[in-house]
Amino acid sequence: MSTPKQVALVTGANKGLGFEIARQLGRRGITVLIGSRDKDKGRIAAEYLTSENIDAHGVILDVTHFPSIERVRHFIEQEYGRLDILVNNAGIHHDWTLKTSDFPVEITHEVFETNFFGVISVTNTLLSLLRKSEAARIVNVSSTLGSLSVQSDPASPYYEMKTFGYNASKTALNAYTVHLAHELRETPIKVNSACPGWVKTDMGGENAPGTVEQGADTPVWLATLPADGPTGGFFNSRESVPW
Ligand code: NAP
After folding, report:
1. Does pLDDT of 242 surpass 70?
2. How far apart are CA 218 and CA 213, in angstroms?
3. What is the model's pTM?
């Protein structure tokens, strides 16, 4: 089974940045699979995009639940025979007021389950399908809050934002980007981390300065990089972010 159209999977695409990333990829003529842990939310999001003439389909995907990842792998294999773009967007945060010294280890585990281990499970499970693409792209939606260089720079506007569990999960995610990109360096597959910037979503809140349209731009750019584009990098507003 194969299709001439490119096929993209976006995790956590029922709302927020994931939905907008799927929409912008869909507008480029790419078939988009709307990963959603809630079946109805995914269906409604896909129907919305379909009404905008985008080829969108909901897939039930909880990135912390391996059987659901395996079902998605099987579905993509049967329907499309390959995967061209994987955007690991699903993510959670926690109470921003928790101090590092008394940060509950249970919450650290919970955040890492989604933001780090979930990405590894999804990506490693789908890698065989990504290898079947002519030039697959993997985008890990990270955060500048995960940059150790930025976090340790007193002059940085992010210096005071010490939200430990979340920040550390994104630092670990960036390590996965570097390691996977290295492993795949001789292949056409590119792996990059993207920070969308601080944007208005349920996670970002109302006071965020950016829109989801702005936030989706860098992940979509990385998802559609040409052959001479970067791999193993970390970008915000299409500019390199220090690790
Ligand atoms: P959001 O509005 O809260 O959306 C998060 C999405 O992730 C939702 O679709 C949610 O599904 C999904 N999700 C959570 N846990 C999941 C799981 N276990 N399996 C599958 N899906 C799951 O957040 P957002 O602002 O769009 O954030 C998207 C990404 O951008 C995250 O990785 C976040 O860390 C990153 N980011 C955001 C900002 C910002 O300012 N907004 C800044 C930097 C980085 P449900 O609807 O079922 O909860």
Report:
1. yes
2. 10
3. 0.98
Q: Is 166 a catalytic residue?
A: yes
Tell which atom from ligand 1 comes closest to the C-alpha of 13: 9
Instruction: Identify the burial level of 97 via C-beta atoms within 10 angstroms of its C-beta, where 0-12 means exposed, 13-18 middle and 19 or more buried.
Output: exposed
Minimum CA distance residue for ligand 1 atom 8? 12
Q: Are strands 234-236 and 239-240 parallel, antiparallel or unpaired?
A: antiparallel
% of the chain beyond a pLDDT of 70: 99
How many Å lie between the centroid of ligand 1 and the Cα of residue 203? 7
- The active-site residue, picked from 80, 158, 159, 166, is 166
Ligand 1 atom closest to 118 (CA): 18
- How many Cα atoms are found within 13 Å in the side-chain-facing hemisphere of 45? 30
Q: Could you give the CA distance from residue 90 to residue 211 in angstroms, rounded to a whole number? A: 18
Using one digit for the tens of pLDDT, what is the confidence trace for 93-135?
Answer: 998 889 999 989 999 999 999 999 999 999 999 999 999 999 9
Of the candidates 138, 121, 124, 132, the residue with the CA atom closest to the CA atom of residue 9: 138
- Residue 179 structure tokens: 């390691």
Pocket test for ligand 1, best of 195, 201, 214, 241 (most atoms within 8 A of CB): 201
Q: What is the pLDDT of residues 134-150, one digit of tens each?
A: 999 999 999 999 999 99
